[in-house]
Fold:
Amino acid sequence: MKGYDALPKSWQPVLSVARLTFRAATRFRVVQFLVLLLLALVVSLPLVLKHDGTALGLARIVITYSLGSIITILGFSTLWLAVGNLAREVEDGQMQMLAVKPLARWKILFGKWLGIMAVNTLLLAVSATAVGSLLNYRSRQLNADERQILTEQILTARAPHRAPTPDFDGMAREQLEASVAENQPTEFDRPSVLAKIRADLLARHEAVLPQYVRQWKIPGSTTDRPAMLRLKFRTARGVHEPVRLPTAWIFGEINSSNHVRLEAVLTTDTFHELAVPPDLADTDGLLPVHFVNLTGETVVFDLADGPELLVPEAGFPINLLRAFAILYCWLGLAAALGLAAACRLNFNVAAFFAVSVLLIGTFDGTIADVSERGSVWNIPEPELVTTAHRVTDWLLVPMIRLLDFLLGAITNYSPIESLSLGRSVSWTQVAAAFGQCWLGFGGLLAIVAITAFSRRELANPDS
Amino acid sequence: MIDLTENIEKQPASTPTDNRENVVSVRALSKVFKDFWGRPKAKAVNDVSFEIKKGEVFGLLGPNGSGKSTTIKMLLGLLNPTKGFIEIFGHSPRHVKTKERIGYLPEESYLYKYLDSRETLDFFGNLFQLHSEERAKRAEQLLEMVGLNQVRSRTVGEFSKGMQRRIGLAQALINDPDLVILDEPTAGLDPIGCREVKDLITALANRGKTVIISSHLLSDVEDVCDRVVIYYGGKIQAMGTLKELLTERETVRLTLPTLPREKMDQVLAMIRKDVAEDRIQIDNPTQNLESYFLGVVKRARENEQQTSGATSGSTVAHYLREGGEEKDQKAKILDRLAADLAPTPIAELLEEKPATTEQKQDANLASLAEAEAPKPVAPVVSKAAERKASDEKADDKLSSLLGGDN
Ligand SMILES: Nc1ncnc2c1ncn2[C@@H]1O[C@H](COP(=O)(O)OP(=O)(O)O)[C@@H](O)[C@H]1O
Ligand SMILES: [Mg+2]
Structure:
């Protein structure tokens, strides 16, 4: 290829290793197979998935499942490709030819990584195009109303804004100090009292009693087009059956003339999106949102569930691109992991190792539970805990906590949920994901891999 | 036979005026392969030292499993020495820049099976940062040289072993290296290919390149090498120029056109006056490295048994059992020797103390007969042994040597 002549010469060896790696994947039909698999998957998923019958529900589930399966398939294929390509080359001896050429060993690894990422770029581009076109095609099959809902709520990129969370810890401490100053208690269990005060404050914050009004002041309101208020609430009864409740809302300052009233019957324990007209912000640029509890029940807005003001900031294609950028970032990490494993281990062991790591990733729910509970056992009565339990916990929990931390750091930026909710995957998130995955974990893996590979002896016992 | 130690000691003395650049220096090099637990498994190279000067063709000679490839892989930085010092062009074997000056043909063809021959050469050319035009030009010439320009669009995976060998040789030369390291370059090549490789080596040497070739095929080494080391069990058993190694100082050989029978008898009669009958040897000039080599290895083997347990015998034996290819007869002798087989005519021959002139004559005559009427590989030496049993007289041999007509 003449193409190399235009580039700085020192790139030439690295790029030709990358090209060779890409070529190996195409010559062995891996790429072709994966393209077909991904296309078949994206097209066929909507046919087999169960959903609530609405266009919105279908679109949501299509996005969630297709992105989920794309990242799973590509995660495995990337690991496989990375481990296989490097380990095979070492075991079959081609690496002996490469290693005696004038390119440092880290450049061999880097070239291979680039080649694998070239494969991933291609596969992700195909997948993203397929997902995008499919959604586009489906939305055009809908009637005008449905299509508008879909375009407003999913096929968009909306930046989320929330009212700031009060500093419950600080408030709890203040209250405790005040109470201590007043009552002069002789002896008390400070942490548990603090926790109780905090829980009490939180409950008051989340609950709205009958005939009361609750106000949030949410930043990021719009001036030119409507935004959506995404929210979910429940009753304090603790009944699990969802019920329908009449609700009343006032957007904008109640005292001024610039406000809008809205009444709606909404189901509990379900997310809703309410349209908020533009230009209702107060003088501080915050949008006052009031919930008027006209029911006979106490209504609870869990802190985690909003409400959240979703403000359109870009189109769906951009959002899809950013979501796929984060998937790409994950795949880069998978490729580095595979290569690092194969730097030291033979093919079988490396493949086993890499696949186990991926599988562990799928248990992140369990891992999160264990690390939060601080024990691998789930024993309700403290007196039933034996030494054996304590020893296993002492051994396992720190490891699981570390795993949880690592997994959390990676999956924090999961773009899949955001994309399915029409919420923006922001450039900041993309940058943070790359920073953490590539510069952080990737850098560590690279150091491990390069050290191992540079020391490795590349000779087989021959004949 | 020559005294080994004497030869090794002679080596430095014989090249005091040689102030050419040192391309390779190896001092006290050892390699012990360890198993997973770090326990020593095989001592592949044992305290080896040598130097290779610019422009030399240097041969590493030794039976299978004697440590030739291990030495080469340490020179190339593929294996880390357990002990010792290596310098190539004044740098460590891991120095990246130095590798621009080295071309390497591994002992097996480790090629990318999904590339065709042109793509293979292009790929390796890129690793040397060659410009596209230069790559194309060199690839063209190399393919021409190794005789693969007809099949350039077939993938290397479809090539026969010999063809893969040729493409391997081509890639080793893509960077016009100053030091060419060829590990068993003729393995798997047809006789023409072998000849071509040797011609190539000579051509490289004429251009001032340094060449290291390892081989268990004596003819490879003898035809092209300036200097050789002979390995056995990871140790250097002998080292020097071929001349130094092969010259027997206490004997003289007259080489002259074949004389008529009665002239020859006259000459012999004159000589017999001063020299005892059994000290006279008559033969046609022939390759002598083989017998020399066999002697060296035999002694080394005897020593080895006394000192330490053999380290590499089993590897070689295994290899031998598999070897069913069109191998050189000499290679077979060598292989069997190392295999330590149950007594065979060869073994018998080798078990003899110092080879007597008569036996030597026998052997040489036999090989001569072979050369005249090329036959398949009826074991040369066993024929010699038969003849020894029949106890023919020297005169009879002479007559057969000179042809029956006179
Ligand atoms: N990677 C390796 N691991 C363990 N033993 C090895 C390895 N490579 C070579 N050996 C052993 O070292 C010895 C020398 O091998 P080698 O250098 O390949 O011999 P040669 O090239 O002279 O035929 C043999 O006994 C061989 O079994
Ligand atoms: Mg070898």
User: Anything to note?
Assistant: DSSP finds 16 helices and nine strands in chain B.
